[in-house]
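queue> holo job accepted (flavin-adenine dinucleotide)
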Amino acid sequence: MRGDREVNEGPFRILIVGGGTAGWMSAAIMARLLPKQHYSITLIESEEIGTVGVGEATIPQIQLVNAVLGIDEDDFMRATQGTFKLGIEFVGWGIADSRYIHAFGNTGRPIGRTPFQHFWLRGRTLGELATLDSYCLNAAAAYAGKFTRGTDTRSKTLGGLVHAFHFDAGSYARFLRHYAERHGVRRLEGRITHATRDGDSGDVASVALGDGSRQAADLYLDCSGFRGLLIEEALHTGYEEWTRWLPCDRALVVQSAGGADITPYTRATAKQAGWQWRIPLQNRIGNGHVYCSGALDEDEASSVLLDGLDSAPLGDPRSLRFTTGRRKAFWNRNVVALGLAAGFMEPLESTSIHLVQSAIERILKFLPNGPIRPADVEAYNAQTIFEWERVRDFIILHYHANARPEPFWQQCAAMPVPDSLTAKIDLFRANGRIERFHEELFSEAGWLQVMVGQGIAPLGYDPFADGPSDVELREFLALLRQTVSRSVATMPAHAAFLAEHCRAA
Ligand SMILES: Cc1cc2nc3c(=O)[nH]c(=O)nc-3n(C[C@H](O)[C@H](O)[C@H](O)COP(=O)(O)OP(=O)(O)OC[C@H]3O[C@@H](n4cnc5c(N)ncnc54)[C@H](O)[C@@H]3O)c2cc1C
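queue> job finished
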């Protein structure tokens, strides 16, 4: 690794390889936050190769990106055909026709230190059978097709609505590109033919472009998509596959006409060997069918997708192949992989763009301005592996805890899952407890909704939930339900909110 760098050698050079969401998000955030006298940022992309062009549903943490960049949310929504997202509805994942929502934000509220689910579980023993949705502002607003900003809904009882976005992936990358270029990022157009490595250190020394020119840097961000141009093709980092737990390996993607219901949530509908997403934008609907090629051929998968649309397709389905898993190291020598170059997890919980965002935060935390130190690299990799594995567990949970009859689903139900997930399920099953470790992405409320939604029933609840009398408990639960329904009644319809605040051209 480069160890001879002096401050007077000029700015530390960051070269971003790839201009999809990962590349331009990295460029925009770094250009905004890094002092220009110490860091230079260049991005190379190839219009001829293009981007994967999917990635349209997000989670609430993305608001932090807008805040850091100083982006006005309405401008951003207009530029990207954006709609608001309050959660993900899962249809048919438990028994056939089952339906639940993993909504952002709180469900109910704790009493003292005892989490809400214990009171809800005790309530069920008293015949209080209302579902979790009735205690969750986000879920109730989503199902009612309502939306307003969280600041208008915040109450002492429940907190406010918490939202993320659906947007057009291509428009989003262009939006970030304009921002990054305005903030000093140098963009080079061209196809990288290969990378050369330093004979002594083994680091990437430069990348060569089709026109014969070369670009060298101190740190390379590999945002080149599935192929991993630097992390894999140049450094042979290796890939850890997770297909034994997440067997889907294909997606068919198609857009369909707008005008259908603009739900303020994503829908994920289980199918015979995979699942189908529906992401409503202002001008069209994004749809895709994630499936296992070992259980379904492409023609069948295409029929499933097209049969499941609720508006006319706007073209033929496009096919994408993937292998679920991660690079053995996310940061190897002087290369950090982000986005699809880092690995792949299917978009069931809309986590990939978030993993790019959190990788950028972490790069900034461990960013060198001189030699790259192994301790920084090790800490970066350990934290990123932890984060990815916990997200992986959450996605496996949806597959594993199912009650569907098809052979694909029965195999998923029977498969041994990672110990970390078994521990989570066992803990919940015993007494309804959920533990969140370190900087795990998903909250207790998220795990609760998915575990209950997928049919995992706890055998007991925390004894502290026996504190209130039966009457007090019933009153507490009724008050929460009332607060939710009254609050939702005052909210505008999602479509009306979009039309008033951020209608796209
Ligand atoms: C089916 C599917 C659905 C998804 N849905 C979601 C979702 O709903 N939510 C979510 O958060 N994420 C989702 N994702 C993931 C999301 O799409 C990606 O995380 C995101 O788009 C980032 O992609 P990327 O920038 O890493 O790669 P890409 O978009 O593939 O960009 C790669 C870039 O590298 C450039 N490049 C490659 N090779 C070269 C070369 N030789 N020379 C020069 N340039 C080169 C390309 O031109 C391009 O600019 C989904 C992914 C898939 C496959």
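queue> The mean pLDDT is 95.
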